[in-house]
Amino acid sequence: MKKPIAASLILVITFIFILAGKFAIGQSTEQSIVAIKVLDIESFQPISHVNVKLTNTQFGNSTDKNGFCEISILKLPINLTLSHVAFEPKSLDIEEIPPNDTIFVLMKPRTTLLGEINIQATKIPQRYYEDVSIIDFELYDSNLLILEKIRSNPGIFRITLTDLNLEQKSFYSLPLTLKPEKLYKDCLQQCHVISKDSAFQIVNDSSRIVLPFSMELNKFYQNMNGCLFQIENEVYFKEEFNEGYQYNFFYVNAIEKSVHEFKSDFDQKLLNKMNESIRWTRKNPGGTANVSMYFDKYYLFSPFPQVLMKKRDSLVYFNHQHGIIEIYSDIETCDRTIEIEYQKSKKWKREILKDEMTEIFYTFLGTDLFEIDLKSGTVIFKIALGNVHKIVIYNQCAYLLKTKYLSNGKSFRYIEKVRL
Fold it and tell me: Model confidence over 63-74: pLDDT tens digits?
């Protein structure tokens, strides 16, 4: 069996990577806070979701439902740019902080809205703007981190922090030189922006989002490869061999820097069937031989994924090769096994999701989402998803990344929250 001898080094590098980012934030210069309250000039009602940005920087915040927000600054004077899809943009020079600590700003409504869609009648929380297309999103400390592209200016990208009802809290405009492709959440629950050649760690430093640390992409994936999760001082990893027919699971003790094996499964029988079918096809070639071998390898004899997840301090091992779920209270004690059948369905999408709040597990049959009952092993229908690009489940709500197609032939992606 192949030994994961580099696992200790992987863990050390990962921790150094994360701690370095936190250290960089902790060493920042002492800051002052500027408090802003934004009102409608006609009604004097507070305006929420106003983007307040330090001009010519990537730092900013957005107003809450009371029209209020705070901006961290290092020195005065400063210039702020305020923008909102329903109001005319405004520039504000601040040379000193007033005695009452709050600066009131009046904004004038636009005569024509810039494409924001009113979704109040749907009663479904959505992040839904025609001028903003969502590239990716991740759950982050009971909030959502959203990677967005401004459609009217394709070179502008930003990271937006929202609450779980998709109400904007703050945002960070990415440098023009950074072309992000997706977000990545590692096994220690840290989030990163991924570009073509680099990974940038995301840190929410109280009132702002920063990217304090980066790493070359290949090195980043080498460090993070196979890392699953952490329970106390033990970090769990997965290795795949023999084209996905063999799985090894092991853990690293972060204190002792020692490596320990947990489980190993090898579906030799299915691999032999696949190889026999490919050998027969090669001996009896036809016009569709390559297509037949591809079908055998990736569909007819495709290996079952073995999945290891945590449930509080217990381990849940989805042993699809043997048709059971194994529950471990500790690394050496399997308390019970549950027989399962869902993995036999041709509609099964070979993926397991977990609600991090309720610790309920889910899977897909076709485009339908099912809850996995860990008492009986049966699956319970929850919702028909349709065509979605990504789903994250938290506190019995599904956050769906979907596409909206417009009458002019263009499209954009948005997030919809659905109660399960």
Answer: 888 888 888 777
- 276 located within any domain: yes
- Expressed as residue numbers, the domain containing 381 is 304-386
Domain finish residue from 54, 85, 114: 114
Q: Within this chain, do residues 295 and 310 fall inside the same structural domain, yes or no?
A: no
Structural domains counted in the chain: 3
Strand ranges across the sheet with 68-73: 68-73, 32-40, 102-107
Q: Do residue 361 and residue 373 come from a single domain?
A: yes
Model confidence pLDDT, tens digit, residues 268-317: 777 777 777 767 666 666 655 555 555 545 556 678 889 999 998 899 99
Yes or no: say if 201 and 192 are a contact pair by the CB < 8 Å rule.
Answer: yes
pLDDT of 164-221, one tens digit each? 999 888 888 888 889 999 999 999 889 999 999 999 999 887 667 888 889 999 999 9
The whole-model pTM stands at 0.71
From 114, 148, 175, the end of a domain falls on: 114
Among 389, 392, 399, 391, residue whose Cα is nearest residue 419: 399
Tell which residue, 234, 239, 226, has the closest CA to residue 251. Answer: 234
CATH number at residue 98: 2.60.40.1120
Residue 316 lies in a domain: yes
CA–CA separation, 405 vs 340, rounded Å?
39
Q: Which residue has the higher pLDDT, 179 or 12?
A: 179
User: 94 and 106 share a domain?
Assistant: yes
| Token pair in block for residue 48 | 């929420």
Cα 371 from Cα 111, distance rounded (Å):
48
DSSP string, 313-368: TEEEEEETTTTEEEEEEETTEEEEEEE--GGGSTTEEEEEEE-TTT--EEEEETTE
Which of 415, 412, 336 shows the shortest CA–CA distance to 375?
336
